[in-house]
Amino acid sequence: VKNTLNPVWQPFSIPVRALCNGDYDRTIKVEVYDWDRDGSHDFIGEFTTIYKELCRGQNQLNVYEVVNAKKKIKKKRYIHSGTVSLLSFNVESEHTFLDYIKGGTQIHFTVAIDFTASNGNPSQSTSLHYMNPYQMNAYAMSDEPDHSWVWCGVL
């Protein structure tokens, strides 16, 4: 955030795996820099927290002192370079295919296998399987099913 001593950052998203690899007690280090146009950003300080603390959301426990260790060593009266307050924290679950199955989702799955090679290459117009862009092939026009297909149903 440019041109302010009291920045309010835009909300952002980060996967839990990237943040703490699913370890809610793993230390998360946050570094704060002062942005410079020439790319030589100045280190303001840092603080640490853990996922469990962030999950508490906005409260007095989620106000962090940003400390620059080098300044702390050089200046006896140095306390911190400011504070960072957590304004919001939201966890959004992304369900996997397995989650849906465990939740009772039923899937009807059908497989069809054509074992006939005698019909020719389907990319050639002489094949019964040829997909003509202007008309249906013999199978598409047929009312009778092709008996060379094997149908398997799985529930």
From TrEMBL:
GO terms, biological process: cellular response to calcium ion
Q: Mention one GO molecular function.
A: calcium-dependent phospholipid binding
In the UniProt record, the gene name given for this protein reads cpne5a
InterPro entries cross-referenced by the UniProt entry: C2_dom, C2_domain_sf, C2B_Copine, Copine
Residues passing through the membrane, by range: none
> Which residue numbers delimit the C2 domain?
1-64
Write the protein's name.
Copine Va
Question: What is the source species?
Answer: Sander lucioperca
Pfam (any one):
C2
What's the superkingdom here? Eukaryota
- Cellular component GO terms, alphabetically? plasma membrane
